[in-house]
Amino acid sequence: MKGAPSLFPGKRIAPYPAEQFCRKHPPDEKGFRMSFRISWRPLLSAALLFCAAGIIPRAEAAPVSSVSRHAGPAVSPSVLSRKKMMRHRHVVAASRSVAPASAAGSAATSEPLQLAASSGNAKPGSFWNEMHVLTEDNAASSSQQRERVGVNASALGSAWPEVRVVPELDRLLGSLGGWRQRLSDYGFDFTLTYMAEGMSNAVGGRRQGFDYSHQVVMGTDFDLEKMFGLKGLSFHMLGVQRAGRSVATDYLEKTGLIQPQQDYGAGGNVLYKLVYMYFEESLLNKKLVVDVGRMPANIKFGTSYFGCYALNSIICAHPTAISVSSKWRSWPFSQWGAMARFNPGYHLYAQAGVFEASATEGGQAGFNFSFAPLGYVIPVELGWEPALGKDKLTGHYKIGGYFDTSDHPDPFTAVDGSPILISHKPARIEHQRGAWYVGADQMVWRFGPAKDQGLILFGLAGWNEGSSLSGQTQYTAGIISQGMFPSRITDAVSLFWTWQSVNRKITRLQELEYDLGYPLKNGVTLPQSNFQVLELTYTAFLTRGLKLLPDLQYIVHPDATRSYPNALEAGFRLLAQF
């Protein structure tokens, strides 16, 4: 056998290091099993320990020199480290063909294997390099590695282009013995995450109680240029599975207007719900990117992954006041559409799209591909993403909006201009509606060189321009402090506040119903006006691929009324990325 089989006909790859070892030495099945057990048992034991005891350990870190600790990611290694790297370059070069380059390094290996690799007895492609990859999958990422890669605390690893593929040093299963990199070299990447949220209504609201919900995210990315030579073309597909119950409707209020659990809602009760499936073409040296396929209209408009440092869906990850009950949909709904993003340079971009105002929105499982638009949703956005000053203080600024050309009935006004409740005439039809928004986040103080390691200010505001939408206005502000503790550079403390108002037309209808003694719709007992959410979250990086977010939320005016006392929600999010 001259080499391992290729993933595609006609191609051959170099023999895997274990294959070379087995040809030179008699197979020792017991020994191989032992190495496998050594690789996985600590991981399982650690996971059980975290769940049972709730311990948040300090991530193992290799000694960090004063140079690497205070300098940016581009700082060169010390003279001594450079000599060691030159002396063992043949070993490192061999291991790079197996392990991802960003995950390689002596800090991720155990000391005995470091000695074995540096003794001069190990040869390129030897069994020791194979062991290097397996133990690397078990090792906690060091502070130096996290500084280079910038492991992010966002809870939606594959939701946005910026973090579509989970960083290699932030996966529970690591490199899978080098197979992740092999597959990526041939154009295939995948993401699998599990997110659980438990939330209790501890004080106030309707009554006290606890609910649990979860979301499994399954995503694949195909680089068709690597696979078939189709320059600049790629294909992306992602789906979710959700289950659980909502603390909002069980204990907090009746309408579900506020959702303290971001992962609860549409998309549950099916094994797999398709969220997006689209082709992406990069042109003009990646200055122009075009997406065509099925995807939510607002997945790349008006969103920020910093918003998902919070658990409440009002904050994570777009202004729900201008999107809920609209055809400017977010995941897990899907629509046929196309969009283009142009990056002229100077940290600027402009993007626009056209999406169907779908009647089916993909159906229960997301695979209803029928095309029968009620109208079209046209979003636009302009943005600036600078890195300011010598410390590279990163920021994201955006302004945008959308038009929806589908028809919708006015909730209050009849065709002749009178209140529907009085005249009993058909509702006036709104032939066009929309909304606009502005948003920004800016790092104002950098604690260290890792990505997002600093003090970040966050803000987002949205305004509706239609009478048939359930929300009217939303203002959100936040502050995020990530990596302020040198030994916990990926941990974050986040504080968010949001204020949201109900559409004035709905409020007027409810006021009229209340005055006439009619029962109010949707189960509310008083006319709705506005509500507020104050949320405090700590993102704890337990080990690579595992995060725990303890969370507190204070809800002012549950149901956007004074029917129930202000409520305190207490809970957590557990995120596992494989």
From TrEMBL:
Top-level division of the source organism's lineage: Bacteria
Q: Which Pfam families match?
A: OprB
Q: Which Gene3D superfamilies match?
A: Carbohydrate-selective porin OprB
Q: Which family does it belong to?
A: Belongs to the OprB family.
Q: What is this protein called?
A: Porin
Which InterPro entries does the protein's record reference? Carb-sel_porin_OprB, OprB_Porin, OprB_sf
